[in-house]
Design brief:
The chain is an all-alpha fold. α3 packs antiparallel against α5. The mean pLDDT is 84.
Length: 308
């Protein structure tokens, strides 16, 4: 195992690394504020302790965790132009980035299941998605995230490397590290297995769920009913597209070896990881009436009665 890995920053900004510190800090603080508000609202309001909002709570946890896991190397590059990262620190960052990334993907899948059951089986929804079932789904998500990724740091740490330890991103990702391994290394095969079972399977199941939802919506009598039912899915579908589309573009570019400039490749990677934590709280605050009303209620100053 190499003692260090070399990260790639945004090309063209290496001469003035401190310049992009401001947008990075702004994005992180806004992400933390938005997701923290969602967590606060759901935790404090017992009427929101329902499956849809439990999954939204988990989505905000994954967004905050993902943004936080990315910041050490991003800030090191932005503030001081630090490209070399010790292998142990790189593997630790890799573990948390992928745990929270797969957690987000798993939660989006659970939310798609929740919406499919609510629209396709409205009469059976309360009995199908009970608190006990939701708790088990939460435990399954945690087990999936940790179980898939716990072996990776140990496998990658003991792999033989036949290529220069130069990564193609500003943070440590396991497919990136696995590509540097010698042919036939088990860690590289397991890394591919993790990608296919999580990030490959989840979007297929999500879009299958929306296929079922779309078929039910077509059968609804009035356009007003279709509009109301569709609005309950709008925020989730937007979050799904925001999370998966940059990832799919990156995968196609790498697989088809499309010659695009390195800044465009790096920018797509930043969008995939940094934009969902920033935009998701806005989407759910705007599209979900109950969340929006409770935020506005909390922001209103309380009237204090005068004592006569």
């Amino acid at each position: 195992m190499a003692p260090t890995f070399l990260l790639v920053g945004m090309p063209g900004l290496s001469a003035v690394p401190s310049w992009w510190t401001i947008p990075l800090i702004t994005i992180y603080l806004l992400s933390a504020l938005g997701n923290g508000t969602i967590l606060w609202i759901i935790a404090l309001d017992p009427t929101l302790h329902r499956p849809m909002y439990f999954f939204l709570f988990l989505l905000s946890v994954s967004d905050v965790g993902l943004a936080t896991a990315l910041m050490p190397t991003l800030m090191g590059l932005a503030l001081a132009g630090v490209h070399a990262v010790p292998a142990s620190a790189c593997l630790l960052q890799m573990f948390f980035v992928h745990v929270f990334s797969v957690m987000e993907s798993s939660v989006l899948l659970a939310m798609a299941l929740d919406r499919a059951l609510a629209i396709c089986r409205p009469l059976h929804y309360p009995t199908l998605l009970t608190n006990d079932v939701v708790s088990k789904i939460g435990l399954a998500i945690a087990f999936r995230c940790l179980g898939l990724h716990l072996p990776l740091p140990f496998l990658l740490a003991h792999m033989p490397y036949c290529h220069p330890q130069v990564l193609t991103h500003s943070y440590c990702l396991h497919p990136d590290i696995a590509h540097l391994a010698c042919p036939g290394a088990w860690g590289a095969f397991y890394s591919l297995f993790v990608v296919l079972t999580a990030m490959g399977l989840d979007p297929l199941l999500i879009f299958f769920s929306y296929g079922l939802i779309g078929r039910v919506l077509q059968g609804l009598g009035s356009s007003e009913d279709r509009w109301k039912a569709g609005q309950t899915c709008a925020a989730h579908l937007s979050a799904v597209l925001l999370f998966y589309m940059p990832m799919i573009f990156l995968a196609l570019i790498d697989r088809l070896r499309v010659p695009i400039p390195q800044p465009a490749h790096t920018l797509l990677s930043y969008i995939h990881f940094l934009l969902p934590p920033l935009i998701n709280p806005i989407l759910y605050s705007v599209k979900m009436k109950e969340i929006r009303e409770r935020i506005l209620k909390r922001l209103q100053p309380r009237k204090v009665g005068c004592v006569q």
